[in-house]
Specification:
Layout lengths: L9 H6 L18 E4 L4 E4 L3 H6 L47
Antiparallel strand pairs: 1-2
């Protein structure tokens, strides 16, 4: 079972502090490719700026499907705690976590 290498406050966990990859995704996504929405405490995809430039009259619409699940579970975590149960990827390598059932 994977263990956290550092302690996290609730906000640090949601912001992915010290993480390279979003741990709650089907495919590996670098946190640097995403935008953090402070109001929802969730990451979302970057808007397609190219599409907006081709159609300047279009409004930037952010849909709920553009959001990734919240990284944290609403609790602070101590170094040595197991990864939260809803994580499917390692936050440092982006590798898929192996179920240990």
């Amino acid at each position: 079972m994977m263990k956290l290498s550092r302690s996290y406050t609730v906000e640090e966990m949601d912001r992915g502090a010290g993480m390279n990859y979003h741990p709650v995704t089907r495919r590996s996504r670098s946190i640097q490719e995403l935008v953090y929405d402070e109001t929802k405490r969730m990451f979302r995809q970057l808007l397609d700026i190219g599409a907006l430039m081709e159609n300047p009259g279009a409004k930037a619409k952010i849909d709920s499907k553009d959001y990734f699940p919240r990284i944290g579970d609403g609790n602070p975590h101590e170094a040595g705690d197991s990864y939260p149960s809803h994580w499917s990827r390692d936050p440092h390598t982006g590798e898929k976590l192996v179920d240990e059932d």
